[in-house]
Amino acid sequence: GHRDAKVVIIGCGIAGIAAAQKLVKAGFHQVRILEATGRSGGRIKTGRIGDKIVEIGANWIHGPCEENPVFCLARQYGLLDPEALKPENQALDVGGHLPWVPRFFSSSGRELNAEDILPAQKLFLELINESSDFQSQRGEPWPSVNHLSPLVKWKDVDEATRSLRLCVISNMLKVECCVNGTHSMDEVSMGAFGLYKTLPGLDCTFPGGYEGLTQNLIAELPAGLVTYNKPVRCVNWNSAKSAEPVMIECDDGQKLVADHVIVTVPLGYLKKHHSTLFHPPLPLHKLLSVQRLGFGTNNKIFVEFDSPWWDADCEVIFFVWNDEDAVVDQVPDVQTSWIKKLFGFTVLKPTERYGHLLCGWISGHESEYMETLSEQQVTDTITQLIRRFTGNPIVTPRRILRSQWFHDPWTCGSYSNLGKGCSEQDLDNLMEPLPPKGLKSQPLQVLFAGEATHHCYFSTVHGAVLTGWREADRLISQILRGPSPQKC
Ligand code: 6YU
């Protein structure tokens, strides 16, 4: 019957798992997942620092509400704190901006007060919101971030105050680089900014780890459906004779045959390996979109202390460099000053669960360079940084733990963004199955899911889930319908 079709899913991240779940539920019994590594979850990855559970990859459920499939699954599996389940929490709409209690420290070793910060924050939010409303056809709102400073008027303040506020704006740009997973805000399309949609609900975490989600989903799949340590080297599809099955070559030389393949490898991996991963190569329009869409690095550096040097109510700590009033989000020399890209730390709460644990955030080439340093080098630099900004000469971390997503050979970065010159069309091209349009009557051979293929929730876990379901549905509906014969 139709449900005998052989379906191979490449990648056991949340998108691959979601696709398998839907196909199995629809009665498909020849589904398998090939995963390069020895674990499932991909960029959902829970780790430990000492006895504390921390997230190496995805951190929050962005917008936990009824429309969010990750929230619904996590609730169903009983993985959330009671707080996150409250209807009030689901109704809060903060438009993606987190209402956290901040503290600001400057490189001169003093804490900044709110009056110094508020005008800069207000202006920055206006600029960002303005850009989100920007229609792509009107072009980019500013040519580069360095062009921001002349736009900033603040007439009746002295030069020192103006300079400090511009330094604060540089800090906020670095935050934005982390959120967007980009090296510089100059590299993302502000015109396309409005495509990304936020959901209501105050972002929440998984107290027992994000991997609880993937493990619960895997446990519901038939045993043995996932093959681990099985990297796929090449997908041999056939543009001409698409009625023939696809042949998949693995790194270990094994060859597998499938009627349909769902590719869920990260966009970063695709950018690097598309020429060897597909035979024949991807159609040109698809290839150009793979190249145009952005995929950047955002890493975390967890730092644990014996006792806190921050206030009990503090939720986020920003580090403002005094010499950045030219408005910059990149450092002049990566090797000597990569640490300037780290915008600061979020405080892990509640303290009873995490102790005195901070999470530092760093994006871009500076972050990629940080990955190449030893843990001791990173620890030393972080220690110097904190001592300088707090003016406390003896504060010493107990230990650190950092992520290294750029050098992860199966990810090659953190998550996707819309690069300059990107449009919705690029997302359409990326998710378009093979054989491409024009051969519509042919059976689907290769389908594309994964975080980067979602129209408005790219770069998120819920986006990835929805793309796995979407491609499973695409296959189910075509198979049940049968390849539509050419109508005359
Ligand atoms: C979210 C969050 N979060 C932080 C960090 C990271 C990400 N995300 P996978 O990669 O999981 O799976 C692919 C599999 O394929 C994998 O297992 C590979 O091993 C395998 N593979 C590769 N090659 C293969 C081969 N050849 N053969 C076989 N197998 C192969 N998302 O919702 N909340 O807090 C964060 C964060 C440090 C790295 C995140 C977050 C992103 C998610 O982790 C990610 O989207 C999904 O897990 C991807 O699942 P997948 O299945 O597609 O791929 C305005 C505007 C701006 C827009 N952005 C704003 C939103 C902010 C996004 N924020 C993220 C922030 C954090 C902190």
TrEMBL record:
The superkingdom of the source organism is: Eukaryota
Give the Amine oxidase domain ranges.
14-476
Recorded GO MF terms = polyamine oxidase activity
Sorted alphabetically, which InterPro entries does this protein's record hold? Amino_oxidase, FAD/NAD-bd_sf, Flavin_monoamine_oxidase
Q: What subcellular compartments does it reside in?
A: Cytoplasm
As cofactor, the record names: FAD
What GO biological process terms are annotated to this protein in UniProt?
spermidine catabolic process
Xref: Pfam families: Amino_oxidase
- GO CC: one term? cytoplasm
Keywords in alphabetical order, please: Cytoplasm, FAD, Flavoprotein, Oxidoreductase
- According to its UniProt record, which protein family does this protein belong to? Belongs to the flavin monoamine oxidase family.
Q: What is this protein called?
A: Polyamine oxidase
